[in-house]
Design goal:
By secondary structure, the protein is mainly alpha-helical. It has a single domain (12-461), classed as Orthogonal Bundle (Hydantoin permease). The protein is 76% helix and 0% strand. It has 20 helices and no strands. Helix 4 (74-81) runs antiparallel to helix 5. The protein is globular and about 70 Å long. It is a multi-pass membrane protein. It holds the Pfam family SNF. Its main location: membrane. This is Neurotransmitter:Na+ symporter, NSS family.
Length: 467
């Protein structure tokens, strides 16, 4: 085997954009508006900001500290800092959860790619024309989506294309692949989103959307389900427990970890907020569409919404949906790059394997499992895993069982096992920066954050609702 020389990000901005790209994904542009719509808009937004400060940023700093001090991928980091201990299973679990999520997440990214193609080629206009003459009760846009995901080969072809793009970036390495693509994709994402936000402000439903998002609803804040939804969104959106330790191990020694965590949280939240400022004005401009339409909002409701709101402006009726699905695709790919790197770095360093070979192992493995996940909405749609098909089981197993445990492990490790001197060394970048909140930071990691994670896990696992 060929030994792999470990390199890191060449610049602070490269590391920041890569870390931001790992967090920015479908969870921001798809899940956040859905959660916001289902949980009272402004009430959810206010609670979400509080959760970010007290939960998301501290846990992100903790994982950054583990990664940079160990200078190892997440699968090996805990063994480096706590040799011959059971803590190693937290790291291995993080590799497993990132890799399994990649398997089915790529399937959804394939759907986004297909819809991006549909928007560019004008398919949505054709569907709208068919819908206008369809019999009562027939939903052409729903039929189009269901027909695509249940097709035995189209989603697999889209999956293959997505994986080929990600594989090409990963094999180029940390600096020439991950860092360079992040410097291109993340700024491009923001530029396109800003243009879409500006255009959305001109739509008839903009004022109603802004009221929905920003007018405080203090009664809804009292609902525990709103807090639970905000906790879950923050946990999954920030890539906590998924192996962000690996990216942190590439950070330069002078990088201010707390400032980087703040920046990542800010960029991640800004993308989510801008997604709401794009989607809700469109939704409120068309009667009969609810902002709480759920996941179907992106693949079923929005294509129809865009057409209904923009059909009198042919150019915008083409460019706005195309730009929207482009940003969705870019955000999804940056997340996939991160998830792929977690597995690639672990295999390369653990097995002393070349990066190209390790990347090929991850790509082929996720492609095979991804095919099975894709077909579970088509020919293999059999509910054999606790009443779930294969795709839904992968999602359930990772998101509601393993992921909370790895996030919990990271918090407890930094709170109880990592040496205080090591932690302070990372928090201050060897004394180059000040970090005056070590005491409160450790209290959060030892007590508050573990309780919140267990709360998330139990309530989601058993479907507990308080409203």
């Amino acid at each position: 085997m060929t030994s792999t020389k470990r390199v890191g990000f060449s610049s602070k901005i490269g590391g920041l954009l890569a870390a931001a790209g790992s967090a920015i994904g479908l969870g921001n542009i798809w899940r956040f508006p859905t959660q916001c719509g289902e949980n009272g808009g402004s009430a959810f937004l206010l609670v979400y900001f509080l959760i970010i400060v007290s939960f998301g940023i501290p846990l992100l700093i903790a994982e950054f500290s583990i990664g940079r001090h160990s200078r190892a991928n997440v699968g090996n980091a805990y063994s480096v800092l706590a040799p011959n201990s059971l803590w190693k299973f937290v790291g291995i679990g993080s590799v497993a959860v990132a890799t399994v999520i990649l398997c089915y997440y790529n399937v959804v990214v394939g759907w986004v790619l297909y819809y991006a193609w549909d928007s560019v080629t004008g398919t949505f206009n054709d569907l709208a024309a068919i819908q206008a003459t369809a019999e009562a009760g027939k939903d052409v846009f729903t039929d189009h989506f269901v027909g695509f995901i249940s097709n035995p080969w189209k989603p697999i072809l889209a999956l293959f294309i997505v994986l080929a793009i990600i594989h090409g970036i990963i094999v180029c390495g940390v600096q020439k692949g991950i860092e360079r693509s992040s410097k291109l994709l993340v700024p491009a994402l923001f530029v396109i989103m800003i243009m879409l936000v500006i255009f959305a402000a001109t739509m008839p439903g903009a004022n109603e959307a802004y009221s929905f998002l920003f007018k405080p609803d203090f009664e809804a804040i009292k609902n525990p389900d709103v807090w639970l939804a905000a906790l879950g969104q923050c946990f999954y959106s920030f890539s906590l427990g998924m192996g962000i330790v690996t990216y942190a191990s590439y950070f330069r020694s002078e990088v201010n970890l707390s400032r980087t965590a703040l920046s990542v949280a800010g960029l991640d939240t800004l993308v989510a907020l801008m997604a709401g400022l794009i989607i809700f004005p469109a939704v409120f401009s068309v009667s009969g569409v609810e902002p709480s339409a759920g996941a179907g909002l992106v693949f079923i409701s929005l294509p129809n919404v865009f057409h209904s709101a923009l059909h009198t402006m042919p150019f915008f009726n083409w460019i706005i949906p195309s730009a929207f699905y482009l940003i969705l695709l870019v955000a999804a790919i940056t997340s996939c790059i991160f998830l792929h790197e977690v597995g690639t770095a672990f295999i390369a360093e653990k097995a002393n394997m070349s990066r190209k070979t390790a990347a090929l192992v991850v790509t082929l493995g996720t492609f095979v499992i991804g095919i099975a996940a894709s077909l579970s909405y088509g020919p293999w749609d059999v509910k054999v895993f606790f009443g779930m098909n294969f795709f839904d089981f992968l999602d359930f197993f990772t998101a509601q069982i393993i992921l909370p445990l790895t996030g919990l492990g990271a918090a407890l490790f930094v709170g109880y096992r990592m040496q205080r001197s090591q932690l302070i060394q990372e928090l201050t970048s060897n004394g180059a920066h000040k970090f005056t909140l070590v005491g409160p930071f450790l209290i959060l990691l030892k007590f508050i954050i573990p309780i919140l994670i267990i709360f998330i896990m139990v309530t989601q696992l058993f479907g507990i609702k308080f409203g």
